[in-house]
C-alpha cells in the first residue's frame, strides 16, 4: 500500500536500503571472518561494519520524526520509542545484575538494538490495540 504521507515515503526510501545494507554487511563480514580469520586492525574494522547500517537506521528514524508533520503519528512514535527504551533499559539492567552474580550468561550488547526494536514494535501494537478498543488516552 502506497502512502500519501511524504515523510513516510522518504522514511521507507531510506530505511529499506539501510536494512538491506545491514543484512549484506552482516553476512559478508561474518563470512570474511570465518574464511580469512583476520586479526588486529582488519578484524576491528570488520567487526564495526555491521554497526554502521544500524547507526544509519537510527538517523533515518530521527529524520522521520523531524519530518513527520502529523502530530498524532509523531506523538505515537515518540511514545513507543521512549517505552521501548524503558523496556530495553529495564531488561539490560536486571540482566546486568543477574550477570554480575553469575546467575545468567553474558548478554551480548549488540542485541540491545534488536531488543529495543522489538520493544518499540510491541508498544506500537499495544497502542493500536488500546485505541481500537476505545481506551485511547488524552
Q: Report on the biggest sheet.
A: none
The pLDDT mean sits at 95
**Helical percentage:** over 70%
Task: Give the DSSP E fraction (strand runs of 2 or more residues).
Answer: under 5%
How many DSSP-defined strands?
0
For the terminal residues, how far apart are their CA atoms? 30 Å
Which outline best applies?
Answer: flat
Structure annotation, total helices: 5
Indicate the multimeric state: single chain
Question: What tags apply to this protein structure?
Answer:
138 residues, mainly alpha, 5 helices, 0% strand, flat
Structure in words:
The protein folds into 2 domains: 1-69; 70-138, no CATH class. With 138 residues, the chain is mainly α. The model has no long low-confidence stretch (mean pLDDT 95). The two termini are 30 Å apart. The protein has helices spanning 6-36, 40-48, 51-67, 71-100, 112-132.
Helices and strands, with pairings:
Blueprint: H1 6-36, H2 40-48, H3 51-67, H4 71-100, H5 112-132
In brief:
The chain has 138 residues and is mainly alpha-helical. It is built from five helices and no strands.
Amino acid at each position: 500500500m502506497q502512502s500519501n504521507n511524504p515523510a513516510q515515503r522518504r522514511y521507507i526510501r531510506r530505511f529499506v536500503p539501510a536494512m538491506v545494507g545491514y543484512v549484506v554487511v552482516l553476512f559478508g563480514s561474518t563470512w570474511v571472518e570465518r574464511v580469512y580469520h583476520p586479526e588486529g586492525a582488519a578484524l576491528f574494522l570488520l567487526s564495526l561494519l555491521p554497526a554502521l547500517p544500524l547507526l544509519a537506521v537510527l538517523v533515518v528514524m530521527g529524520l522521520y520524526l523531524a519530518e513527520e508533520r502529523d502530530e498524532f503519528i509523531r506523538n505515537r512514535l515518540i511514545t513507543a520509542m521512549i517505552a521501548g527504551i524503558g523496556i530495553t533499559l529495564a531488561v539490560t539492567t536486571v540482566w546486568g545484575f543477574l550477570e554480575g552474580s553469575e546467575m545468567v550468561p553474558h548478554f551480548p550488547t549488540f542485541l540491545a538494538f534488536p531488543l529495543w526494536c522489538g520493544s518499540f514494535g510491541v508498544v506500537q501494537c499495544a497502542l493500536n490495540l488500546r485505541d481500537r478498543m476505545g481506551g485511547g488516552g488524552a
